[in-house]
Specification:
4-stranded parallel beta sheet; two-stranded antiparallel sheet; about 10% strand
């Protein structure tokens, strides 16, 4: 890896064929992107500090490196975290060879795509009904509207409330103690009482800890239940607002299900998920009103500005 002194390195979760890594840099405003930067795809977030250490080791004897002052950055999914604040000072992160993790303000970056409906509908409605070479087609001529998409998303999320809550509980439990195994997801249970029984049985079976430790983990269930509006959402899924879903629930799964639904309803063929994501991201490059564009600029502009000051 050729590490340059005047380049700010930004680590991003994603697989080698993920479309977002190449696109994120093009979404940055020209006003703040005068500094050299490079996005590096690293797989899962568990690799952040390993890659960051490699970068620090390359520059540790270089006095003019940006990363002598600014930590290696890492953009991570918020997932089901209650708080996404990282209070470790930058100089300590650099000293410890660790990345500074900054989190999306929504569950993951795909959540922002659920608000780019004008781009999605325009692209899909332009697809031909016939095509050669297995290019995307849309055989139903009825236009796809933003209302159609929002109606599906709301119904989808309302049907997923309990599953999302379970995934939130599993996530919080796993991050409460790295020594614990993952909780097994339940099947065919409904309601808060049954969910609580499932959780208690899981920590009794799998934690293999002292009773005091188990008791402390038992509180996680009720803590999560009182966050946001989980209790009401579980008891009455119809009370769920779409904006809350786009904020807190898993956007990647929702995007996949949306594409599958539209493909079935409008007979869309040969359109792969990454192809659609690539098209959305490309169309957003010149958009000043995109929520995703605003988000990535908000996350990175403080560090790009500081890097510019260092190099001046």
């Amino acid at each position: 890896m050729n590490i340059k002194d005047d380049t700010l390195y930004i680590l991003v979760e994603g697989e080698p064929n993920s479309p977002e890594v190449e696109s994120f840099g093009r979404l940055l405003s020209s006003d703040i992107s005068t500094v050299n930067y490079e996005f590096i795809e690293i797989g899962g977030s568990s690799n952040f500090n390993t890659v960051a250490k490699l970068i620090y080791n390359k520059v540790k004897n270089r006095e003019n490196s940006i990363h002598k002052v600014i930590p290696v950055l890492a953009i991570a999914d918020r997932d089901f975290r209650k708080s996404s604040e990282d209070n470790i000072a930058d100089n300590l992160l650099i000293e410890r060879n660790k990345a500074k993790i900054i989190y999306w303000e929504r569950h993951e970056w795909e959540n922002f795509l659920l608000d780019e409906l004008d781009v999605i509908t325009y692209f899909l409605n332009q697809l031909p009904d016939k095509s050669l070479n297995n290019k995307p087609t849309k055989q139903v001529t009825t236009p796809i509207t933003e209302e159609v998409i929002n109606d599906f998303l709301l119904q989808y999320f309302q049907s997923q409330v309990q599953k999302e809550f379970i995934e939130c509980i599993r996530f919080r439990f796993l991050h409460s103690d790295k020594l614990y195994p993952k909780l097994e997801a339940p099947n065919n249970i409904t309601g808060i009482d049954d969910l609580r029984k499932w959780y208690i049985s899981q920590i009794d079976e799998q934690s293999q800890r002292s009773k005091n430790k188990i008791a402390s983990c038992a509180a996680i269930f009720d803590q999560v239940l009182e966050e946001y509006n989980w209790r009401n959402w579980i008891e009455d899924p119809q009370s769920l607002l779409l904006e809350d879903c786009k904020q807190y629930f898993r956007g990647k799964e929702a995007f996949t299900n949306l594409l599958n639904h539209l493909s079935n309803e409008f007979k869309i063929h040969h359109l792969h998920e990454n192809r659609l994501k690539e098209r959305i991201l490309r169309d957003l490059e010149n958009s000043k009103e995109s929520i995703l564009v605003s988000q990535i600029n908000k996350l990175l502009s403080p560090y790009l500005g500081k890097a510019r000051e260092i190099l001046e």
